[in-house]
Protein 1
Amino acid sequence: MPRKKPFSNKQKKKQLQSKRERKRGETGSGPSSRNASLERGDRQSDTSDSETTDIRRINQQPGGRDGGHDPNRFRLHFEKESKEEVEKRKRAAMENELKSVTDKDLETDICDIYPTEKGLTFPRRPSWNYEMTRESLLRKEEKSYREYVDDLQSRNPPGSLSHFEHNLETWRQLWRVLEMSDIILLIVDIRHPVLQLPPDLYHYITGALQKQVVLVLNKVDLSPPPLVIAWKHYLTSQFPHMEIVCFTSHPGQPYSTILQKKRMRKKVHWSVAGGPLDILKACQGITAGKVDLSSWERKIKSDAVAELADGGGESSVVMEHQSDSAMEMSSLSQELYKDGVLTLGCIGFPNVGKSSVINSLVGRKVVSVSRTPGHTKYFQTYYLTPTVKLCDCPGLVFPSRVDKQLQILAGIYPVSQLQEPYSSVGYLCERTPFLSVLKLKHPSLSDNEPLSQEPKWTAWDVCEAWAERRGYKTAKAARNDAYRAANSLLRLAIDGRLCLCLRPPGYSCLRERWENHPDLPEIMALQGRTNMAEASDEEGESSSEGEEEERDRDADDDDDDEDDEGFKRPPKRDTEQPSGFTINMYDVLKENECE
Ligand SMILES: Nc1nc2c(ncn2[C@@H]2O[C@H](COP(=O)(O)OP(=O)(O)OP(=O)(O)O)[C@@H](O)[C@H]2O)c(=O)[nH]1
């Protein structure tokens, strides 16, 4: 028998590390692997057939073992930023003093994000017929896509467009979902809905496709109720032919708005989510009796009863994997409600909670949920009941003129793969009362030094101070690890624990109206709470630093494991009058939460 090769501890550690990364399906999430991830990302093979510019491919997955399915086919492709650009932003984050923006500056008009004259459309599928071969169809689609990108770039000077999806394969998925669905559930995050609602998409669905859109304002648990109402009114005024439904998959979970020291272990009870009934009602209004939705209504009722009785229903759901050929030749003019079945297509940007909405509608977990954007790779359909089919689609980033920093904070980019996170931290800090919330000590101040005047803060100072507070040190020199601190702050923001919410135009002037709106109790009931102070009332057991460290390291991992852990039901509360809305809406973190 041949002698075993000696295997050092270092090699073993490396082997385990790469195994873990393979399992996670991404290239590095810790500080030690960040450079490696960039190098690997560039070297690995890519299957994109749509490269038109210098593209960065994100979320590289290990190749399929059977050699058939290619897991990289649908990963995110964004335009690469030049080294100089990245360096410039990093320098600015180190040098520029942070300046708080005014309330008014948080008001965002959709026309500033999607200005009509800039041609911010999305790629369309070119026409086809059954005489065409598969190859000629694919070639035609590629050509048309290249022309689309050229046109977009000719109308928008370099650097003016935000990140958007450059992977044609993912756009193909959207085409199929739009073609096969009867009603489109367009899901957006209530914290920044105008970022994720491309007017061109709305006009295409309601115009060319002649289909109806139900806008799902998701994650309402993360927003002050008056703001939810204000957004709903603003969006109705902009898109009058669209049903708008508020939704949350995490009702009554204090985790949503509080920066907590402990690791909040939670099990999501999908069937207690707020909003499925409203989606049903919107669909009943649209279908107007043309399809029998009584089985769906019965399902919602029986799930609620089962939830009360034993904590969850166990209805079975038939899942269909779509084959490539089924994908390629579906007709644009497919008849509505074919075979008496309503098909609902769930579309939206990455991380807005599409999979969570599907799980909530089904009443249990059928789709994997993750805080890593771009997690949903391939569209699948699920029979909710014999007459209602749900169709999940990978998240898509449409071209817009929004700040890239805000895009990062909206969770479209995997944080662990950011080359330069500091400017996004700066963007966040200028729009939130970060000093009082995070309780930071300026890195230039020594322990007992009296404060002669308020020190000036840069984004870099914030990261250093947070690293000091959290004990994040670089491995070699044991200096404060600003990169890791920046990642940690961005994750807190994306998860909604350090909450940045945009506001519709005119919000400040009409504030009183929204704060006294008759719909407030309804929104708060949906959120599972009765007043704003409630979020600050929640207390939990403290946990060790080690647990928090663990959370940081694994912050881009799936949420799915949480399903197996203990769940504390939100306490039931008496109805109270809404109060406290005049306080700064960011004042959601308690005094001692960063201790
Ligand atoms: N607070 C809060 N978090 C939510 C809600 N819905 C989803 N999330 C979280 O948002 C993150 C993304 O959720 P997903 O359902 O995976 O989002 P997705 O749109 O399918 O994401 P992609 O796969 O990237 O397209 C996860 O961390 C969820 O736990 C919600 O209603 N409230």
Note: The chain has a mean pLDDT of 78.
Protein 2
Amino acid sequence: MDRRRLPALSRPTWMTGAHHGDEPIPLAESPIQIAPLQALPSHAAKQEDGANRGSIVVRLKGTLVHRDPDMWAYPSFLSDCECEHLIRLSAGRFLTSLTSLGKEGAQQQSYESGRSVNRTSLSARLMSGETRTLSIIEEKVAKIACVPLAYVEQLVVVKYEPGEFFAMHHDGDFRPQTVLLYLNDVDEGGQTDFPDLPKPLAIKPQKGMALVWSNINPDGSADYRMMHQGLPPTSSVKYAVNCFINRDPIRLLASDEQRGPFCPFSSPKMQ
Ligand SMILES: O=C(O)CCC(=O)C(=O)O
Ligand SMILES: [Fe+2]
């Protein structure tokens, strides 16, 4: 089987009603299966019986924070341990954030990136499945975006010192969805600001929270109502993680250097 022949994604599947506003999302029917685990995230539980015995069940409570275009917030998506793990993993690996200059149809490993005056933050790109904890987080990201793991780009940790920012931009029509994770509370400033929404929103970073939105219209064109900016934190550092959902099954096309030991997609030559 040619593993690259997963379909290109168009509209996010959750826009068809897979999510429920104030209801916990029922993930028990398709639990995240990574075992054995030494430590479970606080919101995860081991399935004790039934066909999926031993696998991890994660139940996440999402809230609709904006309707049409829909945006969801999951306040306890990451445990404190997971947030701290991601901050530790990214330490010493930050580079000046680049802005994607990708054209229509471009993929993560081929589009050009460039330095930009619109962005003064730092970024650290993680390998897919670099650690077991990261691998669980990536599975959870795929679950809340309702896509197979193959479409989740390498996660990128972004760090803003006080005064640093990422000016107004769109994440790209080649990324049908964005999942943004916040790794710490920020005292003042640092909001993710969506001024062009019908009901403009500025989301205050909250440790462990995930925000999910679609970047495209039903016809696949960019939905410019989703333009946003990372405002500068005033007095403390801000850490967030970009989890972009690519139009293509980007993980199947990735090189060995982009995949860590816990990435479930082995390279063809290792099969
Ligand atoms: O830091 C934020 O709040 C937003 C970051 C962002 O939009 C991005 O990196 O694409
Ligand atoms: Fe963005």
Note: Residues 169, 171, 228 surround fe (ii) ion (ligand 2) (CB under 6 Å).
